[in-house]
Each structure stands twice: as C-alpha cells, then as structure tokens.
Amino acid sequence: MLTTKNRSETLRETIEEMIAVGELRPGQHLDETELAAQFGVSRTPIREALIQLASMGIVETRPRRGAIVAEIGPQQLVEMFEVMAEFEAMCGRLAARRMSNEEHLSLLAAHQACMEARDAHDPDAYFYKNEAFHDAIYEGSHNAFLTMQARSLHRRLRPYRRLQLRVRDRLNVSYQEHDSVVQAIIAGDGELTADRLRQHITIQGQRFADLIASLR
Description:
- Helix content is 74%, strand content 5%.
- By secondary structure, the chain is mainly α.
- It folds into two domains: 4-69, Arc Repressor Mutant, subunit A, CATH 1.10.10.10; 74-214, Four Helix Bundle (Hemerythrin (Met), subunit A).
- β2 and β3 form a beta hairpin.
- It is globular, with a radius of gyration of 18 Å.
- 31% of the residues are buried.
C-alpha cells in the first residue's frame, strides 16, 4: 500500500503535470476538497502535495485565497528564461567536454525521438521528447549540483516552454537548433555548445511576443 508520503509525492507529480500541460492555468484556485474528490483521497495528501509544489514555486498560497497556480509576470518570465539560458549553456559546455560515447548515443536517440514528434506535427509529444533531450545534456555535464538547479528551474518554466512549442513553425526551428547543439557537443566544442544552447533558450523579440500572446 502507498504510504501517505508516497501518495502525496504521486499527487504532487500529477498536479505538476496538469499545470505543465495547461489543465490548471496560472492564477487558478486549487481547492483541496475538489482535488481530494477528483483523486479519491483525503485532503491530507493533497495538502502535502500543494506544500511541496509551493516549495518549488509552482503553487502559491495566499491569505483568504488558499493555494493557486503561480503566476509569472512578463518581466520575471524574461529574467527566468535568461537564467535558464545560462544554466543550459553551462551544462552544454561541460557536456561537450565530459560526455562519453555511450552518452552521445543516448543524446542522438533523444534527438531522433524529437525528429519523429516534429514530423508527426505533435507538439505535445515533442514537449516530452524535448524534455528528455535537455535532460540528457544535464546528465552529460557530470555536475550533480548544476543538474539539480537546472532541473528545478526547468520544472518551474515547463508550462511556458510548452506554450512556445505551439507557436507556428516552432517545432521545426527547435529541432534545427537541437541539431546544431548535438553537432557541437559531439565535436567537443564547449563554447560553441554553450552559445547555441543560450540562443535556443533565450526568449526575445518576436518569440517573447508570441509567448505572451499564447498566455492570453
């Protein structure tokens, strides 16, 4: 049987996924009673799951409003993507130096999976394959602390990274950017990898306007 702790962690993952895919929108109230009924559990594991999500910045608790899905303003969103771009650049620079041949094969497999999702014109499938692709780079950095920080911010930005993929032709452009990153990593060029990942993640100009339009 699931312990209360395991149950709350499972619920936390499920609610986090619902937020990432847009089933629960930024600013939406998270009613403990409704969620408990939806998942067929008591309010205790729901409350614990929401506390976990609040500690990650994905949920906010406000006086008299209870828990809501965290909202990020445009300026903060740009700032968070700027930091994410630097995390990715650091991971990529180290991965280009440290990845083994076996890890190169795993990265290529993740890249191939992204291509298949792109060719299927399936942004939802691409979203998950894209996460696996970036995670392979985090792992390839062989820096546990950096990987932990990158994954944490990546999780925080998941709903917004997913929305970007619904912008016209973004799947194809994203895949092309991935391809240039893969080539740089396999060539062992850390600085080129860092530069390409930084450009891949940074949102500015038209991309930012498209993202804000998606949020609305």
